[in-house]
Write a structure and sequence with these properties.
Helix content is 35%, strand content 18%. It is built from 10 helices and 12 strands. Strand 4 (126-132) and strand 5 form a beta hairpin. The protein is globular and about 60 Å long. The two termini are 22 Å apart.
């Protein structure tokens, strides 16, 4: 991509896998995964183990990183509907990169539904990762955002936009940030003055339903609190921590008539609920049985919901099959 200064259709499968892997393999991702597992386990053990005992122990998986990487790679096709862009930095400020390099934000969600903006299935998802001091890759929801781009290429000519993207790397970093020798001392001083308020490892939200009611009431309860009196069931949402800022470029805008699915639940707004079901079904099999990522498109073709997915699926399937066939013939699969 850097050599050709372009993104080809056949690159799509590799880009999605790369971002999924680079997002899941970090120390920060491992700690987020264990933090979410700990909160859910504590909630599940409520009433069976004393709160004092639950607070006194650390709960987690010894091989959390492997679990996270395996699950994330199996779920990576959920990103196939996102539009992919190569960003070319034409300013004098190089990109920096952190030890937690994949920045995930949701500009649309923050503006429209700030309490429902987390997750890879959400409408308005944005993902960005630097590839070098001069190049980065951006993925976003094309049903929500429009972009002034030359094909799949966005050129940055203003320093303030590069500074803003570098700030996101700084805020998203776990313990380390890396920069090239050409990064000016003044620019380094500026970015180090940006406050790095601690981002929670996991967002944990409990909603309660009373009696036969069809509605859910959000609460501020943590994992140690008992359900309210009369509660018949609970809905618990756990997701990784979110940044305080979004990916915002002059070339990208929120559409005047964005398209998304909203059933009124806390689980919405989503891009395509049918595609979410198909990918979730595949991931469940892929993480428990002998099935490879290269079998994905055959799995989709045989799925009963395949004909209900929006038209973008046909193009993605063609791109994915071509890429896998080339890799298989080269001995990589």
């Amino acid at each position: 991509m850097i050599e050709s200064r372009s993104i080809e259709d056949s690159d799509g499968w590799s880009i999605v896998q790369m971002l999924a892997l680079q997002k899941a393999r970090t120390l920060r991702a491992e700690e987020e995964y264990n933090n979410m597992a700990e909160k859910m386990t504590r909630l599940w053990l409520h009433g069976r183990v004393s709160e004092e005992a639950l607070r006194s122990v650390k709960i987690g998986l010894k091989d959390a990183a492997n679990h996270n990487v395996a699950t994330t790679l199996a779920m990576c096709p959920i990103l196939f509907d996102l539009k992919q862009f190569l960003i070319i930095n034409e300013t004098s400020i190089p990109f920096i990169i952190a030890d937690n390099p994949v920045v995930q934000t949701n500009w649309f969600g923050r503006v429209r539904e700030p309490h429902r903006m987390g997750g890879l299935t959400r409408a308005g998802l944005q993902m960005l990762m630097p590839l070098s001091p001069r190049f980065a890759v951006l993925l976003h929801d094309p049903n929500v955002y429009g972009a002034d781009a030359d094909g799949n290429v966005i050129r940055l000519k203003r320093r303030d936009e590069v500074v803003a993207l570098n700030e996101l790397q700084w805020l998203n970093a776990h313990k380390n940030v890396y920069f090239p020798p050409s990064f000016a001392a003044d620019d380094l001083d500026s970015i180090m003055r940006i406050s790095r308020a601690g981002t929670a490892l996991a967002n944990f939200t409990r909603a309660e339903r009373v009696g036969d009611s069809s509605s859910w009431k959000m609460t501020d309860k943590d994992e140690f609190a008992p359900p309210s009196e009369g509660v018949s069931s609970e809905l618990v949402l756990v997701s990784g921590g979110s940044l305080s800022k979004d990916i915002r470029l002059r070339a990208v805008r929120i559409r005047s008539r964005p398209r998304y699915h909203d059933d009124g639940s806390i689980g919405s707004l989503v891009r395509d609920p049918i595609w979410e079901v198909i990918v979730d079904d595949f991931a469940r099999i892929a993480t428990t049985q002998e099935i490879a990522l290269s079998d994905f498109w055959d799995f989709v073709a045989d799925h009963p919901y395949e004909n209900q997915v929006r038209p973008w699926l046909r193009k993605s399937a063609r791109r994915g099959r071509r890429k896998l066939l080339r890799r298989a013939s080269s001995g990589y699969i």
